[in-house]
Amino acid sequence: MTVETATMYISKEGLEKLQKELSELQVQRVEITQKIKEAREFGDLSENAEYQEARTKQSFIEGRIEEIEAILKSAQVVDGRSKAKGVIGVGSEVVVKANGSEKTYKLTGSDEASPLEGKISHESPLGQALMGQKVGDKVTLETPDGKKEYTILKVG
């Protein structure tokens, strides 16, 4: 049975960051395996704190390596340039006006989203509303505070 994985959109920088993290974790994997081997030599493993700590760290490292490998396997690098010039897509930087103030957002894949940094996922309600739009378009979102209208001022 084949499990189909969804495409993960990621920037070039995000891809490089994940590849670097994977490399570092693979080095740590070797180091932690050595620590476990050394801890086993101390005898009774049930009361060996070093062994227990090393096994916990090994579990975390293996889980994160597996997670990164899955992301990289389904990753599609985006560069912000839409096939149709001026149309918002994953990777686009968008300036919108809402409630009299301008805000800049960068549409990213869900793994790179960081609202505090102005990076929003294309899967978020605002991200979904902006996808496919262009300068001058208006989108309206239903928020907990009521309807909010965004006017697209710039797409880069």
Task: Give an overview in words.
This protein is α/β, with parallel strands linked by helices and 156 residues long. It folds into two domains: 8-77, Helix Hairpins; 79-155, Chitinase A, domain 3. It contains three helices and seven strands, in the order E-H-H-E-E-E-E-H-E-E. It has helices spanning 12-40, 49-74, 125-130, and strands spanning 8-11, 75-78, 93-98, 101-108, 119-121, 138-143, 146-155. The protein has a five-stranded mixed β-sheet with strand order 5-4-3-7-6. Strands 1-2 form a two-stranded parallel sheet. The radius of gyration is 22 Å and the shape is elongated. The mean pLDDT is 86.
CATH class division of the largest domain: Alpha Beta
Percentage of helical residues? Answer: 25-40%
Average pLDDT across residues? 86
Strand content: 25-35%
**Termini Cα gap:** 42 Å
List the quaternary state of the chains: single chain
Report strand order across the widest sheet: 5-4-3-7-6
Largest sheet: 5 strands, mixed
| CATH level 4 superfamily of the largest domain | Transcription elongation factor, GreA/GreB, C-terminal domain
Number of helical elements: 3
* The CATH topology of the largest domain: Chitinase A, domain 3
Shape field: elongated
Radius of gyration: 22 Å
Q: Find the structural class using helix and strand composition.
A: alpha/beta
The H/E string reads EHHEEEEHEE
CATH architecture of the largest domain: Roll
Number of extended strands: 7
Structurally, the number of domains stands at 2
Unreliable parts? none
